Amino acid sequence: MNELKLTEVKKHYGNKSVLDGVTVQLQPNTIYGLLGRNGAGKSTLLNIVTNRIPATAGSVTMNDRDVTNNDEALQQMYLMSEANLYNPRLRVNEIFKETARMYGGFNFGLASRLAHEFGLNVNARNGKLSTGYRSIYKLIVALCVPADYIFLDEPTLGLDANHRDLFYRTLMDTYAERPRTFVIATHLIEEIAHIIERLVIIKTGSVLVDSSVEETLAQSHVILGPQAEVAAYTAGLNVIGEESLGQLKVRYVYGALDDKILPDTVRIDGMDLQKLFIELTNEEGDEHVI
Ligand SMILES: Nc1ncnc2c1ncn2[C@@H]1O[C@H](COP(=O)(O)OP(=O)(O)OP(=O)(O)O)[C@@H](O)[C@H]1O
């Protein structure tokens, strides 16, 4: 399996730094969630990895070879994004054939089944499709293309709840049949929480978290109890946010808890990914150690 590595990737637009040294090794056959607030640099990163835009510095390598203008490596990657790369006059079935030609293969049987399930007319012209159906044909391409790395930038844009559900189920089915790496950039954290295995969170152009979902959740705690006890218990821990509920205090902790004895009045719960993401990327509640 091909190894894809990003090393110290930077991107500047004029004086503005969008990516500030991103180093990530994407593991084979793994479903990633790529999370970040608006403008964090997710799309920029995916466009650099797939050679659509150049990095200002750093490298992206597949099997230790730079991917820039490396057709062999680029054939192993497919980026589905809002950008409309195909001629608006092309019909959907022509796009499937064009993709097969570019990638040296395509699962036409699956594409035809999915088009039927999603209610997509494969004879319709690209330029005449609604936003939702444009996302749908691109998703079908992403699921049927024989590449090892599939990048999905806001894949469910414009899809109704039924179609989003169908997409996630189909993704899991095709992943079970033919494992490969998916990197899903999205703001719909709750929807992908149950399918992703690893998590990359970007904040202002840098990687804040690169870990398995399991490890990340094991490090994410909600500490709840009376103000003074919670403050004493969390002193020295990595508190990433807090809230007060009358006499009660909630502190969100990301990282190891120490060996202090937990008072009877204080409770520790787990935190879900969405809450963790909000607290980690909140501007006011930035990471701080008390
Ligand atoms: N061509 C460009 N010229 C100048 N600035 C750009 C260009 N493309 C992106 N940017 C800026 O780079 C930053 C990161 O944008 P990017 O689209 O990568 O973020 P994102 O994390 O995908 O955001 P969102 O979740 O809102 O889609 C933004 O501030 C954006 O305005």
Overview of this structure, please?
The protein is α/β, with parallel strands linked by helices. It has 2 domains: 4-204, Rossmann fold (3-Layer(aba) Sandwich), CATH 3.40.50.300; 216-281, no CATH class. Helix content is 32%, strand content 31%. The strands form 3 sheets. Strands 6-7-8-3-9-10 form a 6-stranded mixed β-sheet, sandwiched between helices. It has a 5-stranded antiparallel β-sheet with strand order 14-11-13-12-15. Strand 12 (238-245) and strand 13 form a beta hairpin. The longest helix is centred in the middle third of the chain and has 17 residues, at 161-177. This is ABC transporter ATP-binding protein. Pfam families: ABC_tran. GO terms for molecular function: ATP binding; ATP hydrolysis activity. InterPro entries: AAA+_ATPase (IPR003593), ABC_transporter-like_ATP-bd (IPR003439), ABC_Transporter_VariousFunc (IPR051782), P-loop_NTPase (IPR027417).
Strand fraction band? 25-35%
CATH superfamily of the largest domain: P-loop containing nucleotide triphosphate hydrolases
**Bound heterogens, unique:** adenosine-5'-triphosphate
Shape: globular
CATH class of the largest domain: Alpha Beta
Question: What is the β-strand count?
Answer: 15
Average of pLDDT: 92
The domain tally reads 2
Q: Class by helix and strand content? A: alpha/beta
* Low-confidence spans: 285-290
